[in-house]
């Protein structure tokens, strides 16, 4: 797809999404980004994107909530006038051990599935008519290397792993049903950037589990 003159919606773009937004903007794409808590980070990203000469708009939305979802795609259409690319990066990345969930309940499960899989599906359904109005479209979902390999490696991430497995299945189903004018793919990154709060031991273990023995970095994902 020729990116000049196109418009992209990126969800959950406070970290890696910032690099993706800038890369698209440098190729002439207008950007809309959703956020829930990371307003200051997103304002900095908006400023960086606008310095490339591209339009960039921010949309505050809780993607785990139906009302939050409903207004996102119409807002992009109103702000940018079109939508050609949807990049579903939003994720609920929280550790919850199974034995703890047995005592505290399944709320983290619901949140993970809602943000990662349900929101991605809902946004794709809402975005498809705008993409077809423009003649074509691209949807990119973010899964994870653990689900792509079908091998969970870390205890405590059952809800996250299950949600990303759902994203993988969703990608395959949408790729079939939205073809041929809308192409749907998934990116399943390995360790990209250390998560906030990771200990030195956890960082070293992630690198140990990675064949290249290093973090990939946001630029490679972009």
Which terms summarize this structure?
222 residues; 6-stranded parallel sheet; alpha/beta; 10 helices
What does this structure look like?
- With 222 residues, this protein is α/β, with parallel strands linked by helices.
- Helices cover 50% and strands 14% of the residues.
- It contains ten helices and six strands.
- The protein has helices at residues 16-26, 39-51, 66-70, 72-80, 98-104, 107-134, 145-148, 158-178, 200-208, 218-221; strands at residues 7-11, 30-35, 56-60, 85-88, 137-142, 182-187.
- Strands 3-2-1-4-5-6 form a six-stranded parallel sheet, sandwiched between helices.
- Helix 6 (107-134) runs parallel beside helix 8.
- It is globular, with a radius of gyration of 17 Å.
- It starts with 6 loop residues before the first strand and ends with a helix.
What's the layout of helices and strands?
Layout: E1 7-11, H1 16-26, E2 30-35, H2 39-51, E3 56-60, H3 66-70, H4 72-80, E4 85-88, H5 98-104, H6 107-134, E5 137-142, H7 145-148, H8 158-178, E6 182-187, H9 200-208, H10 218-221
Parallel strand pairs: 1-2, 1-4, 2-3, 4-5, 5-6
Helix pairs in contact: 1-2, 6-8
